[in-house]
Amino acid sequence: MKTLAQGLIFSALILSLPAAASAGLLDQIKQAAQNAAQNSGPQPASNAPQAGTFGGGFLPAAHNATTVNDDMPRCMAQTYGIHENLTAQVLQRKLPSLSAGDQKTAQEDIAWLNATAGGQRVPAPDPRNPQRYMLLLTDAEQQEINGATNQFVGEVHDKCEYQFGGMSQFGDPSGRPAHAPIDTHVALPDLLHGTPLPAAPTPVESYKNCAASNAGLRWKLMADKLQQKMDAAGLPDAERKEWQEDIAVLRAAQNGDGRAMPVSADPRNPMRYMMRFTPQEQVAVNQEAMAAGSQARADCMNSATGGQMAPVSQSRSQELADMHARRAAERAHPQAVDSGAVDAEVQAWLAARPFTPKAYAPGSATQADYLQKSGTLECFDRQKGFRAHEIARKLMSKRMTAAPQDHQELEAWISAYVAAGEQGRDEAAPAASADPQGWMRFLSSGDQQEINAAASSLHNKIMTECESLDFMENGAKNSQVKYGQ
């Protein structure tokens, strides 16, 4: 009670003083309180490192219930400004290689970076572009700075974490594991006198270099196929010599930039090397080259990005390779087109779209008007949408055999081609895939041949029927039958 009364009287005296005198007295009280707090704790031995220093190992300061445990942050404080410090070192190292103008810019930035690393708040030499020094650094030098920064910060963190222990940094230090104090100081990296890292190619450069090495892949494949065919043929020496010349020009094109065509040894027959293949073999070689090129590009992308190529691209490349392999097997064992099924499809389509010639209405002013009134357009328009109808029908037959992950895309293509057929169009909008021909991977070569055969058969039938009509007379040519009378 006595203490409380004294406190109230003391507060009343302070409030009764003028403002200036009151402020001065409060400052004196604060200073006295600080001195008392500094003298109240245990004094360290004269030869012990002071709390907050990093020279001989960081030791924690005294803590009590009203203080915050800041050992970990104070230990990590040595990482402050490390990136600016290392950047200044690299700029200093490359000064001799810069032009006079760039040297002046670099020296200004070095001074500013060193001041910032030392904790000074000074404006950048160019406030509108405070990181202009980045323009003087190559990608390799920036990677060197970032790598050294990350390594330094990681080493400091490991030491501070060991010394001051994880989540216990936020609580009572007495709960930390007991071990002898370690030196938490980490020496700054010396990039100023270090050897610059070799310039590493960027991912784009890596991809271009890899792709350039595969530029002659098509010619290599053709040369290998021609070599195999020659070895199996048992040719006489004179003919064998010509084959070897053709293989040699393909090898020369393979070792070039991949853009120049092979230069035939026979100027009168510049494509002689290609004529060694049958038409079927030429198709097979071209498709195999496309598949190999797609896989090579995927491998280059995978290598350039460190294995981070998008899974979708990898999956698409594999799908293309599988499709070409499947079609190569189909060519080796061709599937005969079922002409009976083709004729049935054509007849069913025409039966659902009967055409009856109508009387010609005289008075046509234009050719378009004539074609409309005579029924010419109506006759020929019956083939519109048939190809889309056939594609949709074939795609529907793949519902049971398609892979589960492909069902959604397959159904999208079916819906697209059904709609295209109903609208009288032959092709569907590629809404189901970024590839307008994506539907083709669901169909075999035999399926596509049957679609083409049916479309060709319908076209021929309609052309024969429509061209046999005399639209001006509304009947068959040279016929006495008059329709619509």
Low-pLDDT stretches: 1-26, 35-59, 473-485
Oligomeric composition of the shown chains: single chain
Strands, count: 2
Helix content: 55-70%
Structure description:
The chain is mainly alpha-helical and 485 residues long. It is built from 18 helices and 2 strands. It has helices at residues 2-16, 19-40, 71-76, 82-93, 100-117, 139-164, 203-213, 217-233, 237-254, 272-275, 279-304, 311-332, 339-351, 367-374, 376-380, 386-396, 407-422, 445-467, and strands spanning 469-470, 475-476. The protein has a two-stranded antiparallel sheet with strand order 1-2. A hairpin with a 4-residue loop joins β1 and β2 (475-476).
Question: Quick gist of this model?
Answer:
With 485 residues, this protein is mostly helical. The protein has helices spanning 2-16, 19-40, 71-76, 82-93, 100-117, 139-164, 203-213, 217-233, 237-254, 272-275, 279-304, 311-332, 339-351, 367-374, 376-380, 386-396, 407-422, 445-467, and strands at residues 469-470, 475-476.
Main features:
485 residues; elongated; disordered N terminus; disordered C terminus
What topology does this entry show?
Blueprint: H1 2-16, H2 19-40, H3 71-76, H4 82-93, H5 100-117, H6 139-164, H7 203-213, H8 217-233, H9 237-254, H10 272-275, H11 279-304, H12 311-332, H13 339-351, H14 367-374, H15 376-380, H16 386-396, H17 407-422, H18 445-467, E1 469-470, E2 475-476
Antiparallel strand pairs: 1-2
Helix pairs in contact: 4-5, 4-6, 7-11, 8-9, 8-11, 11-12, 13-18, 16-17, 16-18
